[in-house]
Amino acid sequence: MAKYGYFDDAQREFVITRPDTPLPWLNYLGQDEYFGMVTQTSGGYSFWKDAKLRRLTRYRYNNNPMDNDGRFLFVKQGKSIWNPGWKPTRTKLDAFECRHGLGYSQITGKKDGIEVEQLMFVPPQENLEVWKVTVRNKTKKAQKLSLFSYVEFCLFEALNDMTNYQRTYSIGEVEIENGAIYHKTEYRERRNHYTLFGCTRKVAGYDTARDAFVGVHNGLGDPKAVLAGKCTNSRAYGWNPIGAHQVDLTLKPGAEETFAFVLAYVEQGDLPKFDAPFVINKTKGKEIMAKYSDLAAVDAAFAAVKQRWEDLLSIYQATKVPNEHLQRMVNTWNQAQCMATFNLSRSASGYETGIGRGMGYRDSNQDILGFVHLLPERARQRIVDIASTQLSDGTCFHQYQPLTKKGNADIGGGFNDDPLWLILSTCAYIRETGDASILQEPCGYADKPGSKDNLLHHIETSIAYTLNNRGPHGLPLIGHADWNDCLNLNCFSKEPNESFQCVGDIAGSKAESVMIAGLFLYAARDLVGLYQFMGQSADAARVQGHYDDMLKTVEEQAWDGAWYTRAFDAASNPVGSKSCKEGKIYIESQAWCVLGGAGQTNGRAKKALQAVDKYLYDARYGCALQYPPYSEYHLELGEVSSYPPGYKENAGVFSHNNTWIHIGWTMFGEGDKALEYYLSICPSAKPDHDVYRSEPYSYAQMTASQFSPTPGEGKNSWLTGTGAWSFVVASQSILGVKPDFTGLRIDPCVPKKWKGYSVQRKFRGVTYTISVKNPKGKCNGVKSLVVDGQKVAGNLIPLPTDGRTEVKVEVTLGA
Ligand code: GLC
Ligand code: GLC
Fold first, then answer.
1. Sign of the four-CA dihedral 563, 568, 572, 576
2. Which atom of ligand 2 is nearest to the CA of 346?
3. In the chain, N or C: fewer CB atoms in 10 Å?
């Protein structure tokens, strides 16, 4: 057993066996509108829909100790106080375990013969979380103890909540009824919602004022009320409202008691707001508490969480895969990460404070690539929402708030890769579902809301935008930045107090991006395929013409001799070229030119990948973003040169872009290389958790590279495009089950020594059981495809036309 924990694959859990992990190891609760983050010590917070505008509980980022706010239970027994999750008291436990599962976490702590288990989850389609708590007396004597619950309420708008104390210290309001705590700050005027924190068991007391429960000069490690063994029944009026309950228990030898705490976000809807002056209508809150006071309802809700995940995961499951890391990631954890990134984009994680970015245009489009198979209906709606933040000139709001669906004016648009990602997400949706009607979905532009334009119009607008905004080499203009947010070729920022991205004049700029050119090739080819599928051959031919022109430009202007140049700066000097002193080679232009189909006939694509292998790749960590790192700040390049060498966009291993190279290797049938590269960034395969530090079950955005003093350290886990793209790599490029417009295509690229594996894939109402055999020890090429006993030419499984819903597919590799 590894030092901090292990995978329990059968349960789809990661089991953490000691609380002092190298960093907080986080999990997500919820997948509809109510979300929570929970760490192995029950740290974290909850929100409804939008971590900025509807934050329910508080969390202090950049705190020390780290991760010291959460969903806490305190035990007071005799003189000792402790938490089953160890924090915040950090009293030494006799036993500890945290099971992070899909949509739930279960923390169990034991001390002096008392065991407390806290199971936290969000029931499907409900705006609440349940903590099922079981207290067990493992001794041979009767035991008396008090258990205290604790959350600190956020006053809903998280930014104001953590900055504007002259107001916030005077607005907090609560009501308490039958031990249930109703947090109703700002309810009297413009809010029609409250937070409920209740206990299904009779409570001996409560507190709602932080000063009363914790104390002004105490911390959560020694809260006054817990030390005293008694809540004060305080009522918050301003200051810092909290929710705490006291449950007194007397347990016979060997006895146990189970009850639940419920934390709920309640919207009143059409109900009358008040029962009486200052007394809110509690009908819904009471219904919730009545429902979950029945423990059978708690158990049924938890079973529903598990069943829902099993149903979702049954859409793609691989078995007998010769590599355990790939199998568990593709079957379980990678899909969980795709769910989290789809829901939260880059808004709320251990590193994203929930008050910043909201949903990202390019991020959310890419997230769909790894999510669309799970819940295509939701992906469909998201695509339309994202497109609606595009402007009619083709530019896009770079980010938008999920609650309002309005673009963030602060950051605006002008990230010139943004428009193109919409084509990838739309094509992925149509490949998955066959539903091209999405293209006709009415969908206005942000500057023409309510207009009758449709999604296809947005897609053509995106293509036109790239074509119409090109620089001196005929390559696309970069704007504020492209996929690499830190390549700011138009900013020339000398002021520490300004944004790297948004200063400078992009209107008059000539800086160009080869990465966008490659992405254009990829998107245009996708669109050609789509038009062919729709029978619009004239449109297919038109877009093919644009593809051919851009390809010619790339080959003529962007080949640097042994790899593709990354960009041309505002003075038209090359970036990512052998002629540069630092940053001679970048990963993104190799990736996208190869993925877009450049260099196929002239050998350059293979050379580009080999250059990545030679200059960027390190089997222990993955590929650095560029080489050599920048050792000094380059005014003409911007933020990319601001990070210390080996971190982030300055030659860190930025996992997201590694995945594109993995796909690149599979395009050349290099199955051994593809798997080796795949494993180099795979969290499950990290050998030493003290070095890697991040969660072993979730991709990190970046790993410190060989060019840093801390190589191998993972950072910014969970919310990264690596989630979606790694799932694409494993499920489609390596295991080779690829949704296509007219059916499932089988195109594996695996290590030579793999003998075979199986995949179950549900696709457009049919369950395919695909068994792949590799008797000749090849990497790729489908030699034979047998579908329900019938030999089929090529590698496309035709869609059944006779209503069959179960299809058996036998694949032999080695054409
Ligand atoms: C972050 C951003 C993403 C960007 C990447 C590279 O992951 O969310 O949009 O492409 O950094 O800069
Ligand atoms: C992206 C990058 C990050 C950069 C940020 C700029 O998220 O990953 O390095 O600071 O964009 O807003």
1. negative
2. 7
3. N
